[in-house]
């Protein structure tokens, strides 16, 4: 089994953070999003990976080769972003000989027992019920649960069952032909060639597809979801820093994850804070936030914030002389 991981997106909704940092490498509870996915697949026994890279792709390649040198990895560059099916089709030479493939989008964390994917005797799609499915690929089913349609980002959804970005494909050659068919006939949705349409073509050709519901799905493309996911995983065993080193006049409110070689003084950190390596926090109060590597945070109160690598922010200390019956709100 081979794993195909598209990571070519630009992370538009997380800008300006993603101007210099690819979204799959943004840390959640001290661990890049992409590592959650790769580690899950390694636990399933997958050793062959194909990454489709694009925007800031060299950073992803460098990270994978440095952290996972034991894996058999291939990298394919999607120079023009034309959709997920186009991206995966570009890499076809690296998986065309596989008996089956697993596809995982590289910007979401999925809580699921993936053994069910591995053991499935048919091609399958990971799904979860959502409140507003209009921004996702949607699965339409009959009363018996059979898939009757797959629609990409429908304006008026007939179902609230969203595809969460994990798939198992057993009919590999048929899948490649379905992608090629849509490309050759210029069959697009919202100007692109999404994976949803390729799977819909396979369904039309008589391939059996089934759904597998996942427990949790963290689509980390928005700041509020990124921070919520960070908090959820810090609350779980194995992610928070249980015994941080002593810092100078600092209070640590658990759970937090603090990277190596940080300098924290006269500060309060936590709860639900991830701090990258080699970061300085001086005269700061930080809660419910993600701070990157080599950042400098000083003289400031931060909450529900995401600060990138090598960033410097501070200078919000105030000296006030306030009279009776006064109310001041600095917008916090």
UniProtKB/TrEMBL annotation:
Residue ranges of domain Nucleotidyl transferase in the record: 2-231
Cross-referenced InterPro entries: NTP_transferase_dom, Nucleotide-diphossugar_trans
Alphabetical UniProt keywords: Nucleotidyltransferase, Transferase
Encoding gene per record: glmU_1
Domain of life where this protein originates: Bacteria
KW Repressor (keyword) present: no
Signal peptide: none
Major enzyme class: transferase
EC number: 2.7.7.23
Protein name (Swiss-Prot/TrEMBL): Bifunctional protein GlmU
Keyword Transferase: yes
Lineage: Bacteria, Pseudomonadati, Bacteroidota, Saprospiria, Saprospirales
UniProt-listed Pfam families: NTP_transferase
PANTHER family found in the cross-reference section: GLUCOSE-1-PHOSPHATE THYMIDYLTRANSFERASE, THYMIDYLYLTRANSFERASE
One Gene Ontology MF term: UDP-N-acetylglucosamine diphosphorylase activity
């Amino acid at each position: 089994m081979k794993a195909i991981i598209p990571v070519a997106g630009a992370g538009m909704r997380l800008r300006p953070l993603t101007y210099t940092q690819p979204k799959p490498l943004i840390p959640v509870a001290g661990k890049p999003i992409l590592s959650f996915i790769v580690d899950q697949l390694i636990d399933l026994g997958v050793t062959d990976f194909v990454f489709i890279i694009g925007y800031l792709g060299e950073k992803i390649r460098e990270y994978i080769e440095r952290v996972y040198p034991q894996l058999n990895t291939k990298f394919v560059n999607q120079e023009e972003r034309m959709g997920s099916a186009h991206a995966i089709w570009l890499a076809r030479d690296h998986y065309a000989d596989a008996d089956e493939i697993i596809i995982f989008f590289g910007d979401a964390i999925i809580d699921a027992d993936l053994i069910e994917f591995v053991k499935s005797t048919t091609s399958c799609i990971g799904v979860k019920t959502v409140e507003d499915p209009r921004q996702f690929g949607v699965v339409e089913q009959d009363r018996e649960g059979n898939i009757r349609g797959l629609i990409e980002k429908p304006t008026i959804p007939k179902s609230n069952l969203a595809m969460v970005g994990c798939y198992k494909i057993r009919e590999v050659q048929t899948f490649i032909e379905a992608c090629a068919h849509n490309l050759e006939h210029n069959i697009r949705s919202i100007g692109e060639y999404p994976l949803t349409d390729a799977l819909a073509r396979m369904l039309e050709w008589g391939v059996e597809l089934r759904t597998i519901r996942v427990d949790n799905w963290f689509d980390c493309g928005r700041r509020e979801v990124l921070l919520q996911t960070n908090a959820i995983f810090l609350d779980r065993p194995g992610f928070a820093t249980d015994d941080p080193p002593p810092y100078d006049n600092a209070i640590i409110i658990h759970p937090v994850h603090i990277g190596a070689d940080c300098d924290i003084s006269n500060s309060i950190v936590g709860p639900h804070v991830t701090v990258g390596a080699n970061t300085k926090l001086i005269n700061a109060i930080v809660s419910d936030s993600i701070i990157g590597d080599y950042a400098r945070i000083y003289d400031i109160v931060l909450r529900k914030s995401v600060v990138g690598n090598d960033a410097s922010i501070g200078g919000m200390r105030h000296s006030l002389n306030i009279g009776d019956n006064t109310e001041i709100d600095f917008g916090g």
